[in-house]
UniProtKB/TrEMBL annotation, chains A, B:
GO terms for biological process: tRNA methylation; wybutosine biosynthetic process. This is tRNA wybutosine-synthesizing protein 3. Keywords: Methyltransferase, S-adenosyl-L-methionine, Transferase, tRNA processing. Pathway: tRNA modification; wybutosine-tRNA(Phe) biosynthesis. Belongs to the TYW3 family. S-adenosyl-L-methionine-dependent methyltransferase that acts as a component of the wybutosine biosynthesis pathway. Wybutosine is a hyper modified guanosine with a tricyclic base found at the 3'-position adjacent to the anticodon of eukaryotic phenylalanine tRNA. Residues 234-272 are annotated as: Disordered. Transmembrane segments: none annotated. It is an enzyme of class 2 (transferase). Residues 237-272 have a biased composition (Basic and acidic residues). It comes from Naumovozyma castellii (Yeast). Residues 9-224 form the tRNA wybutosine-synthesizing protein domain. Its EC number is 2.1.1.282.
Amino acid sequence: MSAQNPFDQKKAAILSEINSSQPDLSPKGSIDRLCLPIIKLINSHEDMVTTSSCSGRISVFAEGVKDYKGNVKVGGKGQGGKWLYVSHDSDKVRGWIDTLNTSDQEIISGTVEDNLIASDGSTRYLLYKYEPFILHVKCRNFEMASRLYNVAMACGFRESGIGSNNLVAVRINIKLDVPIGFVDDKEKLNLFVSPNYIQLLDKLTLTKFEENEKKMKELYVKIENQIINGNPIASLEAKKEQETKEERRERKRREGLERQRKAKDQKAAATD
Amino acid sequence: MSAQNPFDQKKAAILSEINSSQPDLSPKGSIDRLCLPIIKLINSHEDMVTTSSCSGRISVFAEGVKDYKGNVKVGGKGQGGKWLYVSHDSDKVRGWIDTLNTSDQEIISGTVEDNLIASDGSTRYLLYKYEPFILHVKCRNFEMASRLYNVAMACGFRESGIGSNNLVAVRINIKLDVPIGFVDDKEKLNLFVSPNYIQLLDKLTLTKFEENEKKMKELYVKIENQIINGNPIASLEAKKEQETKEERRERKRREGLERQRKAKDQKAAATD
């Protein structure tokens, strides 16, 4: 194997891990099915490699033991909280609550009692969440990171950003974050919303899954058109849209100098 | 006034706007009180200028008219939706619902009816949100943007990112995003949660306001210590923590070459 630069080494290592049959480092141990097309597309470009991804998920989280100020207790039982349910599959949204209603872990339906409103910060909430697609892409250089960032932003992934070492985070704001109950001192799960409200949340989560998948497909097409099969003019246009008045003036000045220089070079070449 | 580069021009224009008594371009027309210290701190550095901010807020949003697929109808009444309540002030969290319960706009308390669960995508939801502090800072160069980004990330603002033109977005994930009702075809607001549940949400929002303010203060201190009064060693340490194995090897190699070069220069200087 010939000597490679650090980016190529990292890319080769990541691709070999993706293509192996070993579980990866995520809790789930594998790449989400819906992420595979965009991961394959991005990795087909020699200046990009995907480092982590999540296709979007529903989760139900039980908070850990807290003190009266709401600070998580160190060493307490249930410290740090735990996920009671996680699924990346829209077919596994409806019915999640039945999987929690077991002999070990009974769910008590109820309402918000007055004493809960008056309680201190130690209440351990049950949180229902929908989190959208997120993708991290390491780029060979800042120019590549910038191109990917601009395409993602223009496609509605408005919480994207470039981090250290040309690592681009592609993020969108399609979320649900709903307190649906609490864990009592006997570790039982108490709901303070109705079964119908849970069904409504599940229905909303399904629309989030759809919206999210639609945005993922849009992003796929934009990356394919503007980066993989991209022409430099398109990326220059994108740049023009982003720049401020001062930057535009500065760019025009540079472009003018460049034209003058070229004209001079041509003249020099003609008279040589 | 002497000639300035584009960054200094932009910074001067922004500072003069901040210091004027004219309303700014935000819907509220002024900078949130809680943002003032950190904005002042950041703008005291010659290589940074704040371009927009929000100190965190509670909001209640009524979705606009949608078709059965959930797409927003163009030209429909209420198209695009509207904010029924927005406040950046934790003293104005409790009691928001009373401000909506007017003769013009009655709120109907209720539950989630079966027909709502079965309905198509056209339901116009009432959404209760808490959104945390967000800040945009334009930096003179990428090095400065990178330093600010690293400090923000290390301080728990894990959704931060660098955008185009060295604009850093400082973001944190402290959120609530809860469907609490819907707008019916007579434009009336129907809740499907109980008054006690709303009170509980308000209580949770107040803890979010507190947590958010605590994080803002932490960020202030970190920026002050590590950037404003910062020493280069601290920023080098932060860099070491972020880098990959390959990048570490590459840095070590560069540092080695640098040492050799210096040693050679000293030797040359000594023999000159």
